[in-house]
Write a structure and sequence with these properties.
Chain A: Keywords: Cell membrane, Membrane, Transmembrane, Transmembrane helix. Chain A: Its main location: membrane. Chain A: This is Branched-chain amino acid transport system permease protein. Chain A: One of its GO terms (molecular function) is branched-chain amino acid transmembrane transporter activity. Chain A: It is a multi-pass membrane protein. The structure holds 2 protein chains of 2 kinds. Chain A is mostly helical. Chain A has a domain of 196 residues. In chain A, 72% of the residues lie in helices and 1% in strands. In chain A, helix 5 packs across helix 6 and helix 9 packs across helix 11. Chain B has a 6-stranded mixed β-sheet with strand order 6-7-8-3-9-10, sandwiched between helices. Helix content of chain B is 35%, strand content 22%. In chain B, helix 4 packs parallel to helix 7. By secondary structure, chain B is of the alpha/beta class. Classes of the chains: A mainly alpha, B alpha/beta. At the A-B interface, helix 9 and helix 10 of A face helix 3, helix 4 and helix 7 of B.
Chain lengths: 340, 276
């Protein structure tokens, strides 16, 4: 019997525990609307380079949103999401380049492809318990770059492949980078809505139950392997979509963009951002975009070192990630304003 | 050791089954201790054995449970009561046979057994702490058709009105008694035909325990849910259950109608040890 049972009630400190879904911020709608307005206005106020950076944040945000489904909801670890990014990116580059498909068709195509691949990988890996998923996904992350190099006829080998960048339609009057940003923003919004829907559904609750207490979930009739496999496939699909958008934004794909390091850094960003929070992917993507680049100035090894250090600090000081810190801050503000 | 001797000489009228150990091939060889309806019994265990790795815990349980019955399982710590429930819900692999309405349930995955209408309220409740009370209950209805969930939620909440007030609170913030109600409510959400309860009274105040058992009795009587309740509180179990079993060292040593067992000293001695 723990203290909570003896004293009857306990009040968790907001943000300390993953999965805590109490509302802390009293004005979620207003804040969300303001954020959306800022996001829509941003490309018209910033320099093209900043717009590019923001677009990359959104792209990584989509990948992390998917990774969070596995890490935060399913409670598993994937070390191979970089590979799904590569699948999406190369699908886009090959389909729009040599195959000459129009780019609106490419997005669902690569989504489908990465979903299928996720399903195929998750099926055997998730039936086994423990760290198997991590091992299998790590293997995939290791294998993908050499495979890309091997099939140079299609993929351009180690030279890479340039991907066609969607250009703004003339009627919009937008610059290409602005158009691309808004396109990615729309996809990100749709991805977020879909993820929220998934989590609010029966399957999302089942996942949470599996994460909290697999044995109890199983005796309630929840098929553990099936749910985990499906959510892994969803997660792979998000990464694939992010990969496609990456190819659009960068305009060039090469095996060196999708190394094992990318997979590991993605996982780190998910943990730093907060794996079980709607704000986590965005914060993780900001971390992913700025921290390694900023550390680059201090030397070649610095990005890895700084990223590693930040991860250790975040995990020790704020187990719920940056999003958890934000929640705690929001809780403090709300309390001070007496609105909680 | 002493268990075997006790089994050999059941006190008259107690209804103890003189099973002949784990090797017993046909449970039908035993005369049922009291009248049963025709057809296969609701739950029939024959030579049910189970354990954890090399450690054997259950050494052959032969038992028939009728539909709508409430059976209490008593016995000292380590007698295998929890393991019996776990074997029935698939959490531990069992050997021998256990048939639910004629369907063999041993060797099936827990989620499959749940689909057959078995719900297990595990030891220590197993509520999903960060999820809200409502989410916990809805997970309990995982197997129900979507259109039936709302109605079932209303029904369960009417049995446990205390949960209604805490619907949007995380389950971890409930008191022990409320969490137990939640665990039972969650199990009832699946509309089970067989409910396995593992020490529902543990850590609860006497009044809360009584309230919980009142609800269990109501569910048992009105919805005809068959229940197997592992209970440390022998007095309470004998009061509410129709039949009681006493387990010792992985075997059934005594079984009988609860009303007849109550005055006897045998239950208390088996449960509290020979000193009493």
């Amino acid at each position: 019997m723990n203290i909570a049972e003896q004293t009857g009630r306990r009040r968790l400190a907001v943000g300390r525990e993953a999965g805590d879904r109490r509302r802390v911020w009293p004005w979620p709608r207003v804040t969300l609307a303001a954020l959306a307005a800022v996001a829509c206005a941003a490309p018209f106020l910033l320099t093209p380079y900043r717009v590019f950076q923001l677009t990359m944040i959104l792209v990584y945000g989509i990948a992390l949103l998917g990774l969070n489904l596995v890490v935060g909801q399913s409670g598993q670890i994937s070390l191979g999401h970089g590979a799904f990014l590569a699948v999406g990116a190369y699908t886009s580059a090959v389909a729009t380049g040599p195959l000459g498909l129009p780019y609106p068709v490419v997005l669902p195509l690569s989504a489908l492809l990465s979903f299928g691949l996720g399903l195929a990988l998750g099926l055997p890996a998730l039936r086994l318990r423990g760290a198997y998923l991590a091992v299998v996904t790590l293997a995939i992350a290791v294998v993908v770059p050499p495979v890309i190099k091997r099939f140079g006829a299609v993929t351009g080998g180690s030279m890479g492949l340039s991907a066609s960048v969607p250009s703004a339609p003339p009627w919009s009057g937008l610059a290409d980078d602005q158009w691309l940003y808004l396109l990615v923003l729309a996809v990100a919004a749709a991805a977020l809505a879909a993820a929220r829907n998934l989590l609010a559904s029966r399957s999302g609750r089942a996942l949470a139950a599996i994460r909290e207490n697999p044995a109890a979930a199983e005796v309630l009739g929840v098929r553990i392997a099936a749910h985990r496999t499906l959510v892994f496939a969803w997660s792979a699909m998000y990464a694939g979509v992010a990969g496609t958008l990456y190819a659009w934004v960068v305009g060039f794909v090469s095996p060196d963009s999708f190394t094992v390091t990318l997979s590991i850094v993605l996982l780190a960003a998910a943990v730093v951002g907060g794996p079980d929070s709607p704000a986590g992917p965005l914060l993780g993507a900001v971390f992913l975009t700025f921290v390694p680049a900023a550390a680059q100035g201090a030397g070649d090894a610095a990005p890895g070192l700084v990223a590693g250090l930040v991860i250790v600090i975040v995990v020790c000081a704020a187990p719920a990630g940056l999003a958890g810190l934000l929640r705690m801050a929001a809780g403090a503000v709300a309390r001070r304003l007496g609105r909680e | 050791m002493s268990a075997a001797r006790r089994r050999a000489a059941p006190p008259p009228g107690s209804g103890a089954r003189g099973g002949n150990g784990p090797a017993a091939g046909g449970p039908a060889a035993d005369a049922p201790p009291f009248p049963q309806a025709a057809g296969p019994p609701f739950l029939q265990m024959g030579g049910l054995r189970a354990g954890y790795g090399p450690a054997r815990v259950l050494h052959g349980i032969d038992l028939a449970v009728r539909e709508g019955e409430m059976v209490a399982v008593l016995g000292p710590n380590g007698a295998g009561k929890t393991t019996l429930l776990r074997a029935l819900s698939g959490m531990v692999r069992g050997r021998g046979s256990a048939r639910l309405r004629g369907t063999e349930i041993l060797g099936r995955a827990p989620e499959e057994i749940a689909r057959l209408g078995v719900a297990h309220v595990p030891e220590g409740r197993g509520t999903f702490a960060p999820l809200t009370v409502e989410e916990n209950l809805r997970i309990g209805a995982h197997l129900l058709p979507r259109s039936h969930v709302a109605g079932q939620l209303r029904r369960v909440l009417s049995r446990f009105p205390v949960l209604q007030a805490h619907l949007s609170q995380p389950a971890g913030s409930l008191s022990g008694g409320e969490q137990q109600m939640l665990a039972v409510g969650r199990a009832l959400m699946s509309r089970p035909r067989l409910l396995l309860l593992d020490e529902p009274s543990r850590g609860l105040a006497p009044l809360t325990t009584r309230r919980l058992f009142d609800v269990l009795r109501a569910v048992n009587l009105h919805e005809g849910v068959t229940m197997i309740v592992v209970e440390q509180n022998a007095q309470l179990a004998l009061e509410f259950a129709g039949r009681a079993l006493v387990m010792e060292s992985g075997r059934l040593v005594l079984a009988g109608e609860a009303g007849r067992l109550r005055p006897g000293r045998r239950v208390t001695s088996a449960y509290l040890g020979p000193r009493r």
